[in-house]
Amino acid sequence: MEQLFSYGTLQSKEIQMQVFNKILPGTPDQLTGYKLKDLKIEEEFGMTDYFVAMPSENTSDFIKGIVYTISSKDLAKADLFESNAYKRVQIKLKSGVTAWIYIES
């Protein structure tokens, strides 16, 4: 099993149903030393505003999110869902859990 930390769209139950065909149980957690940055992504009907995690020079910065335990197959589905504006890396959360996260590519 894999751990996936979501700070945005993948927390939506509607998106989870579209991507994974199920609702994911998760636990609130935080990623310290990171901040969110605005990101514009071109979609079918034009540009859409999102945000992306990026390392911060300020170690007190943090991002709130949810950590999900998912299968390798579901992680591959998440990779397909995320655009090429993101890359997946492993990080350590405030709780000590090591998880995958999508950050600025």
Describe the structure.
This protein is of the alpha+beta class and about 100 residues long. It has a single domain, classed as Roll (Hypothetical upf0131 protein ytfp), CATH 3.10.490. The chain has two helices and seven strands; from the N terminus they run E-H-E-E-E-E-H-E-E. The strands form three sheets. A three-stranded antiparallel sheet has the order 1-5-2. A two-stranded antiparallel ribbon has the order 3-4. Strand 3 and strand 4 form a beta hairpin. GO terms for molecular function: transferase activity. Pfam families: GGACT (PF06094).
What is the CATH superfamily label?
Answer: Gamma-glutamyl cyclotransferase-like
**Which descriptor suits the 3D outline?**
globular
What gap, in angstroms, lies between the N and C termini?
A: 25 Å
In which range does the helix fraction lie?
Answer: 10-25%
| Percentage of residues in DSSP E strands | over 45%
At CATH level 2, the architecture is Roll
Count of helix runs: 2
Task: Explain briefly what this protein structure is.
The chain has helices at 13-20, 72-81; strands at residues 2-6, 26-32, 34-43, 46-55, 62-70, 86-92, 98-104.
Topology (elements, then pairings):
Blueprint: E1 2-6, H1 13-20, E2 26-32, E3 34-43, E4 46-55, E5 62-70, H2 72-81, E6 86-92, E7 98-104
Antiparallel strand pairs: 1-5, 2-5, 3-4, 6-7
Give keywords.
single chain; about 100 residues; alpha+beta; Hypothetical upf0131 protein ytfp; 3-stranded antiparallel β-sheet; two-stranded antiparallel sheet; 7 strands; about 15% helix; about 50% strand; globular
